């Protein structure tokens, strides 16, 4: 059976689900994530666009298009939380903070980060066992 992961925004107005194993799972240290999402680095699970389905509150989602890059932020109009964002490959990128919330503070093994990528662009050094790639 294909795994199905369910998520919602902070206020519950928006719900969505992702199907199957994520394409990528890890910590992204790239400049794009940092400037677009205002985070030092991003903890992500990413699925292809067709694997993500909005199940609740489609009309509550607002989309912010990056002025120059092929990146979008999808956020809840009611609570303001970014529910996912998209990148140049049009993947749907879900913060592991949403994963944690959905699973009572834990990240299931199959969604946990396997590596750090774009580590050469980092602004914070990470001291852990995971592989680090530029
Ligand atoms: Zn909300
Ligand atoms: Zn990134």
Protein architecture, described:
The protein has two helices and ten strands. It is mostly beta strands. It has a domain of 88 residues: Metal Binding Protein, Guanine Nucleotide Exchange Factor, Chain A (Beta Complex), CATH 2.170.150. Strand 7 and strand 8 form a beta hairpin. It binds zinc ion (ZN) (2 copies). The site of one zinc ion has 6 residues, from helix 1.
Overview features:
single chain; Metal Binding Protein, Guanine Nucleotide Exchange Factor, Chain A; 2 helices; binds zinc ion; globular; 36% strand; 134 residues
User: Given this structure, which CATH class of one domain is correct?
Assistant: Mainly Beta
Side by side, the strands of the main sheet go: 6-7-8-9-4-3-10
Could you give a short account of the major beta sheet?
Answer: 7 strands, mixed
CATH architecture of one domain: Beta Complex
The helix fraction, in percent, is 10-25%
Computed over alpha carbons, the radius of gyration is 14 Å
Number of strands: 10
Examine the coordinates and then state which fold CATH places here, giving the name of the CATH topology of one domain.
Metal Binding Protein, Guanine Nucleotide Exchange Factor, Chain A
State the order of secondary-structure elements, H for helix, E for strand.
Answer: EEEHEEEEEEHE
The number of distinct helices, counting runs of at least 4 residues, comes to 2
Bound molecules: zinc ion
Shape: globular
Q: Spans of 5+ residues with little confidence (pLDDT < 50)?
A: none
Structural class: mainly beta
Global mean pLDDT: 96
Q: Which percent band covers the strand fraction?
A: 35-45%
Distance between the termini: 35 Å
